[in-house]
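seq as requested:
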Amino acid sequence: VDEEEVNNQTSNTDNNNNEDDVDVEENDFKDSAEQQVVVILDLASLEIVKTKKGDFQLLNCDDHIKLMKKYNKDPQGYRPDIVHQELMAVLDSPLNKAGKVKVLVHTEKNVLIEINPKTRIPRTFKRFSGLMVQLLHRLKIRSADGRDMLLKVIKNPVSRHLPAGAVCYGFSHQGTLYNPLSFAQRLPQMGKTPLVLIFGAMSSGSISVADHPYIQELVSISDYPLSGVVAINRVLGSIEHHW
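struct tokens:
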């Protein structure tokens, strides 16, 4: 290969990454039937690029800026570090460690990924990048001992994976403004009605009801635009306090 080329499709080709970078947390994980909060990280940038050396990497604005200029791609749209940070925020939350969270990632390329709440995501972006490349090639990642399915690509649409009767909120600066604690107090009591919370995993733009017709209300939790990580921490922290 004489130059880098973008690979937009998943494949079953093996690569040189290993599975030692991801493992299972030893926590009080409960059966999925008891999970009450579905967190969806939407429009994540997870796209594979093949380099001149023949290996595969996660396309990002830091390492592949020359390629983006060559193909007139906007570097702002290639920020996989955002979904990396958001995943760590969700999976590290006390709400998740109590076994109350289900995590889905929906990419800008319409790939839907389910993350086992017990998964310990790599802390460095380099290792996270390798893990995502491996996932998009193999379509699933198991734990080191093979007993647990940690990450897997699942069938669209998102709506088929939402619990029946769930109340769905999308978070956007354009939504109705609430104090995070006030918003949490409006929610049903734990164990009565499942919740679906949709956060953007992109560097610009916002969640829209047009893309997610099951959203019942768009919510803003600040007078100022917030990063996805900050919004997740504020919302999940308020729900933990309320419940």
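The chain is about 25% helix and 25% strand.
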